[in-house]
Amino acid sequence: MDKKTIYDFIVKDKKGNDVSLSTYKGKVILVVNTASKCGFTPQFEGLEKLWKDFGDKGLQVIGFPCNQFANQELGTDDQIQEFCSLNYGVTFPIMKKIKVNGSEADPLYKWLKSEKGGFLTSAIKWNFTKFLINKEGEVVGRFGPTTSPASIEKYIVKELNR
Description:
About 30% of the residues lie in helices and about 20% in strands. The chain is of the alpha+beta class. The strands form 2 sheets. A 4-stranded mixed beta sheet has the order 4-3-5-6, covered by helices on one side. The longest helix has 12 residues, at about 45-55. The chain starts with 9 loop residues before the first strand and ends with a helix. Belongs to the glutathione peroxidase family. Pfam families: GSHPx.
């Protein structure tokens, strides 16, 4: 059987429409679980900067809101979009709110965690955990919430230049 890649997954956009991640074939993808009321929320600014600086060079940033950590994402999908846009000028796609841990975790996140486990456990420990996907759809990096988007830039550039 062929090894799974990110292109095998279908996610929901903010309106609940299916989005095949194969749409992003050949791009370097940064997948992030986000929250509007988190100490790391200002990372939206850095994520948007990466998207603006490298989007036309082949980077795709995708946010997945999640309310599994201290109720830091209570808003509706529309409220989340508005918050990200108004407060941080976010223009990269923010998908429908999902679960990233537990039995109801989105299949994409189950796969991401199985590909790149975390420290001690593969569970997502908090908001703004970042997964870097190469142009072949494989997970090549996992970065914790405290890792700033700016410090990931060198890894993104490395993948873009492959």
